[in-house]
Amino acid sequence: MKKSLMALGTALILGGTATAQKVTFEEYKLDNGLHVVLHQDNSAPVVITSVMYHVGAKDEQPDRTGMAHFFEHLLFEGTKNIERGEWFKLVTANGGTNNANTTDDRTYYYEIFPSNNLELALWMESERLMHPVINQIGVDTQNEVVKEEKRLRVDNQPYGNLIKAVKENMFKAHPYRWTTIGEMEHLDAATLEEFMAFNKKFYVPNNAVLVVAGQFDKAQAKEWIQNYFGPIKKGAPVERKKYEEAPITEQFRAKWEDPNIQIPMMVTCYRTPSMKTRDARVLDMISSYLSDGKSSKLYKKIVDDKKMALQIGAFNYSQEDYGMYLIYGLPMGATPADDIIKEIDEEIVKLQTELISENDYKKLQNKFENQYVNSNDNVEGIADNLATYYMLYGDINLINTEIDIYRSITREEIQAVAKKYLNPNQRMILDYVPASDKTQN
User: Fold this and answer.
1) What structural domains does the chain harbor?
2) Deepest in the core among 69, 193, 217, 250, taking most CB within 10 A?
3) CA distances in angstroms from 308 to 151, 268, 339, 340, listed in the order given
4) Whether 268 contacts 427, CB under 8 Å
5) Any idea where the Peptidase M16 N-terminal domain is (predicted)?
6) In whole angstroms, what is the distance from residue 146 CA to residue 155 CA?
7) Of 272, 214, 293, nearest to 50 (Cα)?
8) Strand partners, 47
9) With left for phi above 0 and alpha for psi between -120 and 50, is residue 438 left, alpha or beta?
10) For residue 15, pLDDT beyond 90
């Protein structure tokens, strides 16, 4: 009874916090198509200026992978009015920080400044969009930077090619079949003209959203936004081809050899729907139920009780067009991978044939309430979420309402979605093993 009361109290506290943290914002569009979102938060003298472009690895050609991620680096090289090598110095000298990141679906740039430097941040982002300097010196410099990043984070990292191994087997038609960082030989082969064409096609105001979040005067911000971004010409509409993947109807097996590991990894992977769907959110809850923490079903059973694996995990790899649901494990000693898969399948069958307990359901609800609160507990996270919900979900107010979707998911839905997607005939089994000859695929 005491535990139940504590859980109820936690749910009430989290629910109250979530309601109190409703994110207010104003959105409008410039004549050139740039979508603008303003969120005021006067709790600290800080302002975030971010721009998200609807371009990622899926917008590349099969023989030119890595272009979107390359531009994440290239567009810090300099502009017509910011000399090469001066971008970061300018930010630092004015008390700011900045960064960028790329996924298969979008590229995101942001600056964090003291609130009295909003005009500087807006000017810099408008410069990146209007006056980028794309020349051979910059391309050659960033080519080496990206190669080093790939060596450190992928090629020389244990299990660094896991996502690549999964994606190239799970997708046959969709560009999700290659990785965001791409292949270095493709970047080596790209001409300066190809880089310039990529920029001209995707880095246009009508393919972007600008978010200003933090402490600022709204009227002044609008004036600066119009002054700096308004003159930028609208680009041609970005037309995207739609790729359909044939359903997986029969289990298949694949293998990848990694010279950086000694312990093999077993992976099962199921293709899942777009992150925009309700089913994708149910799969989020299923992955949390199965493997989030040491008290989760798979960890307790396979790692703690049966000691068959050193580690076990499940996660829903959600993306704009499709997703993947992965379950992985590191076998203990000589435990066969198929024995671990059998134990995993038993837990999935339970999900498919029995409703999870009321107590487990309440724990899930509490976890997702907590995640919601944490995702919006700082202005940096809010800026990112506003851009993402607008650009990739097509519904910016999900920043306030998505938690209601998770709250409304029932135990019956969890059972139904497990039945719909997590069946042996709908998956790949990947044997990710040490390289026998110390070479990599």
Assistant:
1) 22-229 (3.30.830.10), 252-434 (3.30.830.10)
2) 69
3) 32, 16, 8, 7
4) yes
5) 36-179
6) 12
7) 214
8) 113, 214
9) left
10) no
